Amino acid sequence: MKRSLLSVITFALVLVNLVLTAVLTIAVLPEVQNANALISKVTEAIDLDLESGDAAATGDYDQADLTDVAFSDTLTVALKKGSDGVQHYAVVGVVLQVNNKSENYATYGTALTDGTKESYLKSVANDVISSYTLEEIEADQKAVQQAILQKYQDEFGKDLIVTVGFSSFTPQ
After folding, report:
1. How many CA atoms are closer than 13 Å to the CA of 136, on its beta-carbon side?
2. Cα(53)–Cα(57) distance, rounded to whole angstroms?
3. What is the rounded CA–CA span in Å between residue 113 and residue 99?
4. How far does Cα 67 stand from its chain's mean position?
5. Which distant-in-sequence residues (6+ apart) come within 8 Å of 109 by Cβ?
6. What is the DSSP letter of 50?
7. Which of 146, 141, 126 is nearest to 79 (CA)?
8. Closest to 128 in 3D by CA, of 149, 114, 113, 109
9. Tell me: the pLDDT tens digits for 104-137?
10. How far, in Å, CA of 169 to CA of 129, rounded?
């Protein structure tokens, strides 16, 4: 008799466990689906942002599709006064890489490569470089190049000018 009573209690507990598991699954499943949908949306947004961002940083451009554009002469830029209070200058040669496959190449590409926009490009580079002190430029030239690149990309589109470099850099 004890044995059958224990079997009945065990069976009842198993049945209650099964019912509670079903209720829990039914109650939690919609919330899990909502969370999965939210995670999917966030992931898609991140992927779109990465794809629309700076492709030059990821190296997605074929070198055959890039044209180097160097300024005809170097820039002499008055730098922002640093902690020493002395006016410093930098003589900089700037080189750009223009993507021939860009959607904006038809609009701006020829003007960039034939020198028509050179004075404007120099002006932008001069403005950016002059906002740095000698110490800042010597410590991190890449930051200056990225700031110039960002200004150019804001003006001409993210994928037209893909790299900015210094062919020469002489601080004074």
Report:
1. 17
2. 9
3. 11
4. 22
5. 98, 100, 102, 160
6. H
7. 126
8. 149
9. 888 888 888 888 888 888 999 999 999 999 888 8
10. 11
Q: In the beta sheet, which residues pair with residue 161?
A: 98
Residue 98: phi, psi to the nearest 5?
Answer: -105, 130
Q: Which two tokens stand for residue 40?
A: 């999917």
Say what the pLDDT of residue 48 is: 53
Local structure of 161: helix, strand or coil: strand
CB-based contact 137:171 (threshold 8 Å): yes
User: What's phi and psi for 100, nearest 5 deg?
Assistant: -70, -20
Rounded distance between C-alpha atoms, residue 76 and residue 65, angstroms: 31
Written as one letter, the residue type at 130 is S
- Asked whether the whole model's pTM tops 0.85, one would answer no
